[in-house]
Structure formats: C-alpha cells, structure tokens
TrEMBL record:
Organism: Iodobacter ciconiae
Cited Gene3D superfamilies: Nucleic acid-binding proteins (2.40.50.140), P-loop containing nucleotide triphosphate hydrolases (3.40.50.300)
Classification via PANTHER family: ATP-DEPENDENT DNA HELICASE HOMOLOG RECG, CHLOROPLASTIC (PTHR47964:SF1)
Domain of life (superkingdom): Bacteria
Name of the protein in its database record: ATP-dependent DNA helicase RecG
EC number of this enzyme: 5.6.2.4
Location of the Helicase C-terminal domain: 452-613
One GO BP annotation of this record: DNA repair
Similarity comment: Belongs to the helicase family. RecG subfamily.
Reaction equations catalysed: ATP + H2O = ADP + phosphate + H(+); Couples ATP hydrolysis with the unwinding of duplex DNA by translocating in the 3'-5' direction
Length: 673
C-alpha cells in the first residue's frame, strides 16, 4: 500500500489530517460510532439519541421562508416524520423523491411541525442489509467523506505490520491486550460491546492505545530535551539601547504581562542554547510589539531576524507595522513574499544572504531553499500552528541554530501546552491592553435573519463596517463556497447602496488581498467571508460580526473570529446565528462562548466538553501530542508509561526506537526543530 500513489487532491486531504504513512491510517481512530445495526419503527424510536429508521417519502419540497430549505415527509407502517435540510445539493431531492424508500440515521426531535430529523444521513433502503458492526465516525476534513476514509483504513489494516512493539515481558505485568486486536476492535466494534466503554474510551483496547501513545510521548520528551541542550545558539546580550528607543517611541507603555514575557524571552536569548519559546496571547493582547522588542535585542547584537506569518495579508500587516516602528530608528525592514516581482525578490534574497537586511518579514516564501541568511539570530513565527514541522525545520537550515519565538493566539491551556508542546517553553500574555471596548455577544436564531440584515444596514449608516462569516461545511468545500456566494448575492440585493465584498479560500492571494485592502479603506462596507479571515486581520472600523451556523464551529475558532471586531473605539457586537433546534451539546457550547470573553477560559471549557484532541492548533503543532489519552483521567497510565519509558531507554533501546517509529515517525525531524 502506497499513499504516495494516490491522486494529489486526495493525498493533500490526507496530509491535512496528518495521514502520511499507511500506519497513520491504522492510528486514525474513530471519534465516535453510529449504530446502524438496528432498525427502529418510527413510533418507538427513542428521542435525543441517533437512531436508524426506514420509510417511504410522502412529499418533498424546497421552502424559502425563513430561509431556503428542503423539507420531506417520510413514513413507515406506524408513524412518520419530517426531514429538514438547510444546505443541500440538488441531487438530494432525487434521493428524497416521492415514493422512494429511504433509510435515515439521525436524532428525532420535536419540531415546530411535528417530529423531525434535521440533516440525517440518507440512503436508499434497498442498498444494503443492516450492518453487523458499529459504523465508525472518523475525524475528517472538507472533501474527504467517511466512506472513502473507512475504505483506506480497511486497506491499511490489511497491509500494515500490526505486530506488537512491546515484548511480552513489558506487556504482561500491565495486563493490557495486544496491539493488533486492539486497533481492529476500535475500528469496527461489534454491537454487543457496551457503547459507553467505547465513547468514554475506557475499554481495554482504548487503554492499550492510550498507553502506547503516552509511552511514545515520554520517550520523545526525554530524548528531545537532551538533544536541544547539546546544540548551541548565539548568545544575544546587548545593552538594550535599541529596545529602549523603540519603547520610547511608542504611544503606549507595555502592559505588565507584556513586560513579564519580554523578560522571559530576553533571558532565553543570553543562553548558549536555542530558545524555543511559544508566546501565547489572546487576540489583541499585543504579541507583535513583544516580538519587535525581542528583534531589537538580536539586531543590536549584530544578528538578523526573520519574521514569518502564514498568510500574505497577515504578513503585510506585520511588515507595515514593523516598518513604521523601525524606520525612524534607521533599521531597514525587508519584505519577502511569493507575490513579489522577480527583481524585488532577488534584491530581498540578496539582502538576506549578505546580511544587509537586519529584519526580513514575509510569508512562507522565507522557507524556500533559495533564501539564506548571513547571520540569523532569531526566527519569529506568527500563528505557528499554521506552519508544519517541515517548514519550521527548513527555517533552521537557514543558518546555524537560531533562537525561535513562536506566537499563537490559539489558546491552549497551560498544563496542556506543557505536555503537548513537549519541549517548548511557554510564555503567556494574560492581560489585554487598557481601553478596549468589550464585545457584546448575542445568540440569535436563524429565523431572525431578516432582522439581522436590517441591523447591518443601520450599522453601515452609522459609518461602521460589518463581517458576515459563512458556515464551515465539513463535508464539502464546494458547498461551503456556494453558501458564501449565495449569501453574498442575498446581501448585495438587500443592502441597497452598500458595497458587499466576498473573500474565500479558493481565491488567489492577490484577489483576496485586494478585497481586504478595499475593506480596510472602507470602500467595501460588508465583507462576506468563509473562515479564511480567522487569523490576524485588523480593521478597527468593523464593529459588527455575524457568524452563521455558529453551532457548527469550534469554540476557539468562534473566539478568534469574534476578536476581529472590538478593535476600535466603537461598541462592538458579535451575532451568533444558530439553526433550531439545537442539541444539548451545541447549546452548552454556545453558552460557553456567550458567557466568556477570555480565550483561555473558553479553551478550557471547550476541552472539558469535547476533549483535547479537538482543540484547534494542537493537532497541527507538529510536536508529539496526545490524541487519545487524557492527562488527568489517565494519570495511572501516564505513571506506568513513564516507568516503562525509563526502563526502555536504559535497557532496551531498539524497542524504544521501534515504538517511537510507529507512533512518531517524524521524530528525528522533531528533534531538530
Ligand atoms: P495580537 O496579540 O493579536 O497579535 P497585536 O500585537 O496586533 O495583537 O496588538 C493589537 C493592538 O494593540 C495593536 O494595535 C497594538 O499596537 C496595540 N497594543 C499592543 N500593546 C499595547 C499596549 N501595551 N497598550 C496599548 N495598545 C497596545
Ligand atoms: Mg497577531
């Protein structure tokens, strides 16, 4: 089995999920299961839990009020229910054609017009007999459906070597089941296994996987730490005059929290080992100035600094801000991005290579092989979770072992960060600069969409600007795009005399930048966007944000989005539109975002509700993280893993390496990053 031979589009989606080797598929375990082994009569089907029913379509029509939706009536021998779809492909209407017998999987709820299923899974009934095993539901990404993923995983289970990495002598005293039967069971459990053991991950098969994962983390933590201490980095210990000058030129003073983290960074820079510090701070907490002051230290000591951001929009904002700060101090800031013309790019690359550019700001263009630095002392990476390990590694190859400062607004609770980010030191800015106007958050039912559109008109009349964020549709990127295009059209029609712009992930960088620039200049008053605007955009005049289908988004993501407003002096409002009826989980999650403004608190509660594996950013961090184990709940397993790790490193190195290779194949790379 060779994943490299798969079509490019499919491959890139797998990579997005971190699935690179066939073995990664083996370790891609279900988030939950659906029970399609049992068919319920509609009258007897329990409410509030997903069930499988089968019936004949009596009617099916597209309705337009309060918004476009497809409504079908389906009945079986004893009962009937409504099926409601808010986003749908035209092909669904064929599936739900009158007279067809369909199998529906979903939660039955009491709706306005009787019992209903919203967005059930729909299949033709005669397609297959009932399943024998529970249906796994895997974490996935846009454009990759469950069936495709399950098929690949089945193949991987067949082709991969599933033999145990751990010798019987290690396993037996732990009384854990063997690896092979554990993964097989978790990918396709029989219905007789109590559901709670699977969902709460207490089944012995889960215990085994968690133990293996914790063991790999322990092994890698120990080896990584030792490796970093062996590398040397420039000692950066200037007088601090440049930083003092920059500080004196600012119209504000640092907050206490900024001062504290700056001290931590300055202290790292004078050590002869490469700093690897993660600077965490909520959106708007002022990370940029801290990074700039750290850059001052390196520049004054005669070293170069590189600053990278994940998107061109964001990188350009940094460039503008840093140029404004540094130019008066006589320090040249060089811009390097993919969109730069050939000649300008050559000059920028030359400046970096000759050492004549003290500070280079740009996008991942900086990672390219053609870019080298004469004397790189400090590399700063903004929104670091957006960059992969390979890119961070490329950076290190740009000259020696520079100190690294990574910045992130993705709130990761401290305890979690310390274990997930294994060998990183963490600094937290836990205070916002004074004088911000708090953002008011409102939860509004989608049925009141018209009202919200009027509210937008009123805001624009006051001279303000508005973001409208379209829902994330996991199943289909194309559908997400369509929703954005539809909304853009609707708003353009209804908001007469106002300019409504549109940005989405499929647009070219230059096009996106153009729309953003027009929005910044207030030539566009309402910006319809997919979630591409999540990171870093700064338009202080925007004071209203509407987020559609808020119930589908991650809480940290909602929090980040919300942080795009409330940046100026105007009172700001964030409207979270949701679709009724809301499930219990969705309700409690929206309550969290409604009641809290602190990103860290939101992340903590989100983790409580959903488990850590789901936190945005954690997965992409590239450092050994825990997908399955829970540091608190599995404290006993962790303790055992710690002891076994010690033993393996001391006495069974080949076993330790074998185990690491299975769980953390990029480990050699990680050690260098
Ligand atoms: P983020 O942490 O989200 O990257 P920024 O660094 O972009 O935040 O800072 C947000 C805004 O706050 C910027 O306009 C910045 O100049 C301003 N700012 C930063 N620190 C302070 C401070 N101590 N007092 C007042 N304003 C500040
Ligand atoms: Mg920022």
């Amino acid at each position: 089995m060779d994943l490299a031979a798969l079509p490019e589009a499919l491959k890139s989606r797998l990579i997005k999920l971190g699935l690179i080797r066939p073995f990664d598929l083996v370790l891609h375990l279900p988030l939950r299961y659906e029970d399609e082994t049992h068919l319920y009569p509609m009258v007897d089907a329990p409410m509030g839990q997903p069930v499988l029913v089968e019936g004949t379509v009596e009617s099916c029509e597209v309705q337009y009020k309060p918004r476009k939706q497809l409504v079908a009536r389906v009945s079986d021998a004893g009962g009937s229910l409504n099926v409601r779809l808010l986003n749908f492909y035209p092909s669904v209407a064929k599936q739900l054609a009158v007279g067809k017998t369909v199998r529906l999987y979903g939660e039955i709820r009491r709706g306005f017009l009787g019992d209903e299923m919203v967005h059930p899974k729909i299949r033709a009934a005669n397609e297959q007999s009932l399943n024998e095993a529970l249906t796994p539901v895997y974490p996935t990404t846009a454009g990759l459906n469950q069936l495709q993923l399950a098929k690949l995983i089945r193949l991987a289970l067949k082709h991969c070597d599933l033999r145990d990495t751990l010798p019987a002598g290690v396993l037996e005293p732990l009384s854990l089941p063997d690896f092979s039967s554990s993964v097989r069971l978790l990918h396709s459990p029989t219905p007789d296994i109590p559901h709670s053991l699977l969902t709460e991950r207490t089944h012995p098969a889960w215990q085994r996987l968690k133990f293996d994962e914790l063991l790999a983390q322990q092994l890698s933590l120990r080896t990584a730490h030792a490796a970093r201490r062996e590398r040397t980095a420039p000692v950066i210990a200037p007088e601090g005059e440049l930083a003092a000058k920059l500080l004196a030129s600012l119209p504000f003073a640092l907050t206490g929290a900024q001062g504290k983290v700056l001290k931590e960074i300055t202290h790292d820079l004078i050590l002869p080992h490469p700093m690897q510090r993660l600077l965490q701070g909520d959106v708007g907490s002022g990370k940029t100035i801290v990074a700039a002051l750290a850059a001052c230290q390196a520049i004054e000591a005669g070293y170069q600094v590189a600053l990278m951001a994940p998107t061109e929009i964001l990188a350009e904002q940094h460039f503008n801000k840093l140029s404004a700060w540094f130019a008066p101090l006589g320090i040249k800031v060089v811009w390097l991005a993919g969109s730069l013309g050939a000649k300008a790019k050559r000059l920028a690359i030359e400046d970096a290579a000759l050492g004549t550019a003290p500070l280079v700001v740009g996008t991942h263009a900086i990672f390219q092989a053609s870019v080298t630095f004469a004397k790189l002392g400090l590399a700063i990476v903004d929104e670091q979770h957006r960059f992969g390990v390979a890119q961070r590694l490329a950076l290190r190859e740009k000259g020696g072992s520079p100190h690294q400062l990574m910045m992130s607004a993705t709130p990761i609770p401290r305890t979690l960060a310390m274990s997930y980010y294994a060998d990183l030191d963490v600094s937290v800015i836990d205070e916002l600069p004074p004088g911000r106007t708090p953002i008011v958050t409102k939860l509004v039912s989608d049925a009141r969409r018209d009202e919200i559109i009027q509210r937008i008109a009123a805001k624009v009349e006051e001279g303000r600007q508005v973001y409208w964020v379209c829902p994330l549709i996991e199943e289909s990127e194309a559908l997400q795009l369509q929703t954005a295009v539809d909304t853009h059209q609707q708003l353009t029609e209804e908001l007469e005399g106002m300019v409504v712009g549109l940005v989405h992930g499929r647009m070219k960088t230059a096009e996106k930048a153009e729309v953003m620039a027009a929005f910044l200049r207030n030539e566009v008053q309402v910006l319809v966007a997919t979630t591409v605007i999540e990171v870093g955009v700064d338009v202080p005049n925007a004071s209203l944000m509407v987020i559609e289908h808020a119930e589908r988004m991650g809480l940290s993501q909602l929090h980040q989005l919300r942080g795009r407003v409330g940046r100026g002096a105007h009172a700001s409002l964030c409207v979270l539109l949701y679709t009724t009826p809301l499930g219990e989980l969705a309700k409690s999650r929206l309550r969290v975002i409604y009641e809290n403004t602190d990103g860290f608190e939101i992340a903590r509660q989100d983790m409580e509700i959903r488990g850590p594996g789901e936190l945005a950013g954690v997965r992409q961090s590239g450092v050994p993280m825990l997908r399955f184990a829970d540091l608190e709940k599995d404290a006993d397993l962790l303790e055992e893993a710690r002891l076994v790790a010690e033993d393996l490193l001391a006495h069974h190195m080949p076993t330790a390496l074998l185990h690491l290779d299975r769980w953390l194949p990029g480990r050699e790379m990680l050690l260098k990053v």
